[in-house]
Amino acid sequence: MARNEIRPIVKLRSTADTGYTYIIRKNRRNDPDRLMLRKYEPLVRRHVEFRDER
């Protein structure tokens, strides 16, 4: 398998509706479903949920 097939680049979009995104690489074997991570949102100045956007 090529590197991009195992660990694709994924955008995490904020659920606070500010349009802020994080760009990460995700391991498809360990997380086959969509990710939902709690990360810092600098525009709102607090931690919010970020969802996997494809």
Descriptive account of the structure:
A hairpin with a 6-residue loop joins strand 1 (9-14) and strand 2 (21-25). The longest helix is centred in the first third of the chain and has 4 residues, at 3-6. Helices cover 7% and strands 46% of the residues. Strands 2-1-4-3 form a four-stranded antiparallel β-sheet, with no helix packed on it. With 54 residues, it is mainly beta. The mean pLDDT is 92.
Topology:
Layout (H helix, E strand, L loop, with lengths): L2 H4 L2 E6 L6 E5 L10 E6 L4 E8 L1
Antiparallel strand pairs: 1-2, 1-4, 3-4
Provide a concise account of the structure shown.
By secondary structure, the protein is mainly beta. The protein has one helix and four strands, in the order H-E-E-E-E.
Biggest sheet descriptor = 4 strands, antiparallel
Helical residue percent? under 10%
Name the poorly predicted regions: none
Amino-to-carboxy terminus distance: 21 Å
Work out the oligomeric state of the chains in this entry. Answer: single chain
Total helical elements: 1
Structural Rg? 12 Å
Helix/strand structural class: mainly beta
The ordered H/E elements are HEEEE
Report the sheet-strand fraction: over 45%
Name the average pLDDT. 92
How many extended strands? 4
Give the spatial strand order of the biggest sheet: 2-1-4-3
- What characteristic shape results from the CA principal axes? elongated
